[in-house]
Amino acid sequence: MILIVADHKDGALRKSTLELVNAARALAEGLGGEVAGLAIGDSRAADALAKLVPRVYSVTGEELAEFRAESYTTVVSHVAKEKGAKAILISASRAGLSYSPRVALRLGVPLLEDVIYLEVEGEHVIAKRYSYLSRVTETVRAESLPVVVSVKPNTFPAAPAGESGQVETLAVPLGERDSRVKVGEKSKAIIGRVALEEAAVVVAGGRGVGSAEGFTELLEPLADVLGAGIGATRAVVDAGWRPHAEQIGQTGKTIAPNLYLGLGVSGAVQHLSGMNRAKVVVAINKDADAPIFKVADYGIVGDLHAVVPPLIEALKTVKE
After folding, report:
1. What does pTM read for this prediction?
2. Beta-carbon count within 10 A of 55 CB
3. Which CATH number is 2-179's, of 2.120.10.30, 3.40.50.150, 3.40.50.300, 3.40.50.620?
4. 37, 212, 258, 261: which has the fewest Cβ within 10 Å?
5. pLDDT, tens digit, 9 for 90 and up, residues 265-275
6. Per-residue pLDDT reduced to its tens digit, 233-253
7. What residues contact residue 159 under an 8 Å CB cut-off, 6+ apart?
8. Strands 136-142, 124-131: parallel, antiparallel or unpaired by DSSP?
């Protein structure tokens, strides 16, 4: 059995979970067995996952209402061991990267981290992942089973719904160490209108935008008319113009939108590593030699303040 752990919010599955299903199916073909899902903390997520895989294990409880790496480690390890999982697939989100190594350590099994490709060779799971700022693609192999795999978001296609799976409720005992960390409070960052990882269109800004006000005056109106997510380069985030939640790149988020618009983005390799799966890239920059133009499908050399406002008005007219 190949076990995937659902990444969800408010009962809704994140796109990364749909990608895990396709990754798990690739492993199931080589290793044998069915694909099963595990939803922790919310029965609504279990019901949604049952539309993607034939069997879903649901583990809920007051102590699992909030994410904690310790409690997730205990639940995932327990279910994987009890059900005899050959591979455990976890999204390489910020949360997933915090507990997937713990699961591997708890089970005493190999860990393939932040992978972008999977295949099976005999009894070995082969994976590829980026390294050296995405300039090098490494091939790594797990020498034994079971194996824990964290999958980089937006690198596998999303699986469509269509299953009519069964949900089985499980009880997993939690110990004192699983509740050592308490969630005091949560604050929601004011970020782009659409979550970056889910967005079909992303408008990203770089230092060429000039200031935090430039984002308010140019990027936000453009994102509104396009129904787009807002992204930023590391330099912008470091300058305090935008929150880290909007950072795209090696130390930020990986996106795969249908359309990416880079405004004042120079095209540093660290940023490109986070958006190079965009289907269509449009760049607007006053520097004709900016590296972003080498990867852009369409480019405009010009001042953002002269180019973007007329673009917004034209898009509004088209929408009307």
Report:
1. 0.80
2. 19
3. 3.40.50.620
4. 258
5. 999 988 998 89
6. 999 999 999 998 899 988 788
7. 18, 19, 21, 22, 25, 52
8. antiparallel
